[in-house]
Amino acid sequence: MIKKISLCFVVILQGAIYGFSQTGQGTLPKLISENGRHALLVDGEPFFILGAQAHNSSGWPSMLRQLWNAIEEVHANTLEVPIYWEQLEARQGKFDFSIVDTLLNQAREHKAHLVLLWFATWKNGSSHYMPEWMKREPEKYPNITGKDGRPVDSPSPNITATMEADVNAFANLMKYLKKADEQHTVILIQVENESGSWGSVRDYSPKAQKLFEGAVPADLLKPGILKALHVPIVSEGSWQKVFGERADEYFQAWSVARFIGEVAAGGKAEYALPMYVNAALRDPLTNPSAANYESGGPTDNVIPIWKAAAPAIDLLAPDIYLSGSERTMKVIDLYDRPDNALFVPELGWSEDRVKYLYEVMARGGIGFSPFGIDDNGRGSLQTEISLRLAPFAQEYVMAAPMMRELAKWGFEGKIKAVVERDDHADQTIDLGVWQAVISFGAGERKASEKINIQPNGKLIIVQLDVNKFILIGTLCRITFHPVDKYAGRAWQYLKVEEGRYDNGIFKSRRTLNGDETDWGGPRFGAAPIVLQTELILR
Ligand code: DGJ
């Protein structure tokens, strides 16, 4: 007989409303890892960032009202917002932190957390956020020189003066933040933005060339790293000799990562918040050459280089703009590693990408955030904004009151998820003595009677006990089968309750039965619902 243990799962969140501490007594946010899984601790408990990112030019005081309106509308618990180097240090050595104060005050008023994005030496491969005083001195703070000697609109990572200026500005920011944010409203820092170079795989200036012709640093010649980079294990050699056709890209990755690692270390020496670097992705399926993507950023193939070169960076995070379920799932897989917590800091704002929220949660990821929450000064109608935010808002409304439980379950490995693939095929989840079969569609009696126009179905299963589960989903239907020694046995739902989490406790709104659970199990429609269900063998 399958054991039935009734489970009382109560998480008490003292002094917190959906994860925001009111007391100001929170401990320093930090990342922890256990058994290859990770958690972002905020106020000492696992936290999941239900985030939303501002447009690039919306981190100005005059734009904040619409940002907060959007945060409220989408029910995000965290705003990701840029801090511009050109604004912070408009005059060399003179820092203006007023935007930091404004953001902190407004975030607290809105009971939201902040992720600050340090737009500095790199923004999408260029240096457009460098202060004017640096832009005016291109000899001192030069760009990359392309292979044929042509100028490239990307900062050289091999210039000490640029690095020192960035380290200094960032360290000042972190020093200020430490004093101004005892409440830990800011929970995470992004260092630079989509670093690397477009238009040239590396810097071919004489200075960089000399470095390239020198020896590969010993820190990179560790057998484990070389193995991960699929090259023979050697103890010395030039970049070309050790890395062959990938030498230019790996040199650039090492140079960018070393630079940014120094910036992060300088900031952490002042205030040790968790820090990450975001990646402009390459096609994860075809191993293209670096001429086809942003070279030197933390693309999947150079993660081992970044880990060795930038130990002060806690994690490398994919910005997901590519499409197709195979590609997207591959990316998620590549950045979810025992040495790398999964975080999606940017995601193209489209309905078909919402489903990956479930995948990130199930893998014990630390957060998820669509890009471009606000109307970007366009004066859009409120209905237009609401329509755009709606697919994310309905998920965040569901997840926000149980965010702490989801984060904890994810960290403990209790969540499994399926997201509908482009071929709409059924999927199964193994749950010990049960197997769940999930079919996608919106049919009343059979999911596939009304196939989903877009493959947007998704489901999370949290295993609370041998026979007891939390189910959250949309546009699919689930049924169970007993397996192994119970295979073929009769079974039924003991109870299926629809409800919501409130302060750590499941509150039932109604019990589903009859048409709502017959026809092969509960059905999930266009808006997510939370079910608590228990199964019994007969
Ligand atoms: C990715 C970048 O990281 C963002 O800052 C933004 O430029 C988007 N691309 C494009 O809208």
- Judging from the principal axes of the Cα atoms, what is the shape? globular
What structural class should be given to the helix and strand makeup? alpha/beta
What percent of residues adopt helix (DSSP H or I)?
A: 25-40%
**Number of helical regions:** 14
Terminal residue distance: 9 Å
Contiguous uncertain segments of 5+ residues:
1-17
Gyration radius, rounded: 25 Å
Instruction: Summarize model confidence as the mean pLDDT.
Output: 94
Instruction: Tell me the major beta sheet.
Output: 9 strands, parallel
Task: Describe, in plain words, how this protein is organized in 3D.
With 538 residues, the chain is an alpha/beta fold. Helix content is 28%, strand content 26%. The protein has 14 helices and 26 strands. It has helices at 64-74, 85-88, 98-109, 132-135, 160-180, 206-213, 223-228, 239-243, 247-270, 303-309, 325-335, 356-362, 382-399, 403-412; strands at residues 16-17, 20-21, 30-34, 37-42, 45-47, 49-53, 78-84, 113-123, 143-145, 151-155, 186-193, 275-280, 315-320, 343-344, 346-347, 367-368, 415-419, 427-431, 434-440, 458-463, 468-474, 476-482, 491-502, 505-511, 523-524, 529-537. A 9-stranded parallel β-sheet has the order 14-16-6-7-8-11-12-13-15. A 6-stranded antiparallel β-sheet has the order 17-20-21-26-23-24. It has a 4-stranded antiparallel β-sheet with strand order 18-19-22-25, with no helix packed on it. The longest helix is centred in the middle third of the chain and has 24 residues, at 247-270. It is globular. It binds (2R,3S,4R,5S)-2-(hydroxymethyl)piperidine-3,4,5-triol.
